[in-house]
Amino acid sequence: MTGASGAVYGVRLLQNLPGEKILVMSETAKTIIPAETGYTPEQVGAMADAVYSDGDLAAPIASGTFDYDVLFVVPCTESSVAKFACGIADTLISRAFMCAVKEGRKTVLVVRETPKSAIMLENELKLARLGVVIMDANPAFYHQPETVDDMVNFVVGRCLMQAGVKQNLFRTWGEGPSD
Ligand SMILES: Cc1cc2nc3c(=O)[nH]c(=O)nc-3n(C[C@H](O)[C@H](O)[C@H](O)COP(=O)(O)O)c2cc1C
Questions:
Q1: What is the pLDDT of residues 83-109, one digit of tens each?
Q2: Closest CA to 146 of 110, 171, 123
Q3: Hey, which CATH number is domain 7-162, 3.40.50.1950, 2.30.110.10, 3.40.1390.10, 3.40.50.150?
Q4: Ligand 1 atom at minimum distance from 27 CA
Q5: From ligand 1's centre to the CA of 2, what distance in Å?
Q6: What are the tens digits of pLDDT across the range 142-171?
Q7: Which one-letter DSSP state was computed for residue 172?
């Protein structure tokens, strides 16, 4: 989780993603999480199986040899996108990203910023061309959300789909209300 608005997306993903979860929160994320979600970073950490500091460049995920399925950065700042696009790996999150890309792992960024400058768009394009999934924190409305939770669930459900996990957080297009 990095320091963008939308900490709730990261929290909801942790709550719904099956399997073993390894969490890193950037320093800015740690200030935004309580402001936006009411959870402390420690409470969010307890939703994961392991937590590492963003400064811990000796953590297992800092090595390409550590095997796992999907790297999510949720929410993802444009600052982190810029680092990722330039190959800067001076934090655990940016180092884990660099390793994930070089090892060809599935990598999904839920980026939150608007409007976007050409710098941001070019960075995102560069990563998309490498196969990184750029998934803006961008809810749809065809499932007729009634609450903010419904809108959050759409974005998180789309994340679960990227991980190959069957999701029931929102009704996909074509599914009836009782499906
Ligand atoms: C309250 C708050 C909200 C922020 N929201 C965003 C955001 O939505 N998107 C973004 O790209 N940066 C946002 N930022 C700026 C980033 O936190 C800042 O660029 C930081 O250096 C990112 O570092 P990180 O990617 O390592 O977390 C926000 C900062 C604060 C304090």
A1: 999 999 999 999 999 999 999 999 999
A2: 171
A3: 3.40.50.1950
A4: 27
A5: 7
A6: 889 999 999 999 999 999 999 999 999 998
A7: P
